[in-house]
Amino acid sequence: MKLSIDLACESSQEWVETVMGDFNAFLQDHANCERKASAMAMSFVAKHPDRLEIIPELIDTAVEELEHFRSVYQIMQERGVALPAEMGQDMYVKKLIDNCRSGREDRFMDRLLLASIIECRGAERFRLVYEALESGELKTFYHNLWASEAKHGNIFVKMALIYFDEEDTYRRLEELNLIEAEVLKSLPLQPALH
């Protein structure tokens, strides 16, 4: 069942061309994003240990994201691509988080909904990468990731609906979705997931 909403804007063909033009750099960024996604899921557990209804699914999500990291790292090893020496700040995620409301409950809702939007954007971009790749293992890998990320987009909305009114949740999700589109358009093109 689809709980997430459609993104307010689509990624550009120029973004796809940028990624295909430096795929090794994209892999490095992708690996970093998977590590961060795993850590983000676990940070919900650390910050909200009283939210017992969602902890098992958060742990499962963290493990799945870590498995994605392992898979990307294996591809990097096969291609002779090293992990970057340091993880730079993801300006896309930073700008989104800057739009979170203050207050424990409002911020909790916003972080869950932003997690959904970020996963939906990842799914959209993995689909575009999948479509741009030639046949082979890499194409299959990105096809599978596309499906997984789309599922995660639903998971975080489902979690929000456990704690918050449906109408309020979707109103805020629409607001954040429009903000995400503006953030995405404001960023320079680079061979990166965001």
Protein described:
By secondary structure, this protein is mostly helical. It is built from 7 helices and no strands. The protein is globular and about 45 Å long.
Which terms would index this structure?
mainly alpha
Lay out the secondary structure.
Elements: H1 13-21, H2 23-47, H3 55-79, H4 91-97, H5 104-132, H6 137-163, H7 166-186
Helix pairs in contact: 2-3, 3-6, 5-6, 5-7
Order of helices and strands: HHHHHHH
Q: What is the alpha-carbon Rg in Å?
A: 16 Å
Note the gap between the termini: 26 Å
E-strand count: 0
Q: Strand count, sense and closure of the main sheet?
A: none
Helix content: over 70%
What coarse outline follows from CA principal-axis ratios? globular
Structural class: mainly alpha
Strand content: under 5%
Summarize the structure.
This protein is mostly helical. 74% of the residues lie in helices and 0% in strands.
